[in-house]
């Protein structure tokens, strides 16, 4: 069978998950990598057996042998590189978020329509085993109509610094970095209803707290604490046109007792949790049941989820299938995420037609 020839653009932290998964996929070959930082690109090329190294993504895209690319660069370049890649005839797997503005996201959607190429947004949680299991229960109607979801991803000390904290390159803080995952997984499991309105609040109260000692936290590849122009906390209430609602809060830093992650869905017939681990709630014969699925891994498994995401992308490219996380979903997410910032700035609810 034909193998898909891959180029990976941006070879920082998350690229290892992409490169590792392509390397394991027997229908893909890693041909090229590209990074502004040549040394970093060369190291990754060596590690994963890429024969071509670029420092300008345009040169990689001009390489006629490359069929598809993973875009693992800073958020503000996702839309620009996606559009250029589609126009160069490549299929695209772009890391989340799709873009940093709704306008950009729409331009990517137009490029997908114009070129007929495939674009998959890296909503990796959709591809995780625990999500796939829960989706089967939801699709079979076990939860009934899901009318409420609630998600939290609160880091007490977790501003990664570097580009994550620089609004120009990231487009925003925990809303775009963590909120995108929390909102997407709820929205996807709720059946992707159309967003009706967003009310949000963002806070810049604590700064990046680089002063804190004796407690370690994740730092970006090029950590730099000197610049911090992003929010440290956000919350939001999102309404959908089917009457369902979603409440979410996310932080890079907060005076919380501990880090916290939870994703909960409530339906007419049952409920479910997907974070911190898969759990189901139901009622039968007038009795409430709390149910723990007996599966290998109830928790989100990062490596497994990326492998499943990449396998799906390769399969879609080679066999002309529609991705599970298409560009239209990336656009809808950008409406919700940007809606949170706009609502907070204007101090009022943002409504969509
Ligand atoms: N799906 C997930 O769970 C997940 C987790 C982490 C990061 N991400 C996303 O992955 C992306 C990268 O994050 P990261 O943590 O790997 O950051 P990183 O800083 O470790 O790596 C980004 C790399 O991209 C390179 N780069 C930036 N702009 C470039 C350009 N125009 N051309 C070529 N190279 C360029 C940088 O030099 C850097 O090496 C972000 O969009 C982030 O939101 C997703």
TrEMBL record:
Ranges for domain Gfo/Idh/MocA-like oxidoreductase C-terminal: 135-351
Name used for this protein in its record: Predicted dehydrogenase
GO molecular function: nucleotide binding
InterPro entries, alphabetized: Gfo/Idh/MocA-like_OxRdtase_C, Gfo/Idh/MocA-like_OxRdtase_N, Gfo/Idh/MocA_Oxidoreductase, NAD(P)-bd_dom_sf
Annotated organism of origin: Lihuaxuella thermophila
A Pfam family: GFO_IDH_MocA_C
Family, per entry: Belongs to the Gfo/Idh/MocA family.
Superkingdom of source: Bacteria
Gene3D superfamilies for the chain: Dihydrodipicolinate Reductase, domain 2, NAD(P)-binding Rossmann-like Domain
Residues in Gfo/Idh/MocA-like oxidoreductase N-terminal domain copies: 4-123
SUPFAM superfamilies assigned: Glyceraldehyde-3-phosphate dehydrogenase-like, C-terminal domain, NAD(P)-binding Rossmann-fold domains
């Amino acid at each position: 069978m034909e193998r898909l020839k891959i180029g990976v653009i941006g070879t920082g932290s998350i690229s290892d998950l992409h490169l590792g998964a392509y390397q394991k996929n027997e229908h893909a070959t890693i041909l090229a990598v590209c990074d502004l930082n040549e040394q970093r690109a060369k190291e990754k090329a060596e590690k994963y057996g890429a024969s071509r190294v670029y420092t300008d993504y345009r040169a990689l895209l001009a390489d006629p042998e490359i069929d598809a690319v993973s875009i693992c660069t800073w958020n503000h370049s996702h839309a620009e590189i996606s559009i250029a890649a589609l126009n160069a005839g490549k299929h695209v797997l772009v890391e989340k978020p799709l873009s940093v503005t709704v306008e950009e996201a729409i331009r990517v959607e137009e490029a997908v329509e114009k070129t007929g190429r495939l674009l998959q947004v890296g909503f990796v949680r959709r591809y995780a085993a625990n999500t796939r299991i829960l989706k089967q229960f939801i699709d079979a109607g076990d939860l009934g109509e899901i009318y409420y979801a609630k998600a939290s991803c609160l880091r007490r000390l977790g501003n990664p610094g570097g580009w994550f904290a620089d609004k120009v390159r990231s487009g925003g803080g925990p809303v775009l970095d963590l909120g995108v995952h929390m909102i997407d997984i709820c929205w996807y499991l709720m059946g992707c209803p159309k967003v009706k309105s967003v009310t949000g609040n963002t806070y810049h109260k604590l700064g990046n707290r680089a002063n804190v000692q004796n407690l370690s936290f994740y730092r970006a590849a090029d950590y730099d604490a000197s610049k911090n122009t992003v929010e440290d906390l956000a919350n939001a209430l999102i309404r959908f046109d089917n009457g369902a609602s979603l409440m979410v809060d996310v932080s890079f830093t907060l005076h919380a007792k501990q880090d916290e992650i939870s994703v909960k869905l409530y339906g007419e017939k049952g409920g479910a949790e997907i974070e911190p681990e898969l759990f189901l709630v139901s009622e039968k014969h007038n009795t409430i049941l709390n149910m723990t699925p007996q599966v290998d891994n109830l928790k989100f498994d990062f490596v497994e989820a990326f492998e499943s995401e990449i396998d799906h992308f390769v399969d879609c490219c080679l066999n002309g299938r529609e991705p599970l996380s298409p560009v239209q979903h990336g656009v809808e997410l950008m409406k919700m995420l940007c809606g949170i910032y706009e609502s907070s700035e204007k101090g009022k609810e943002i409504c969509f037609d």
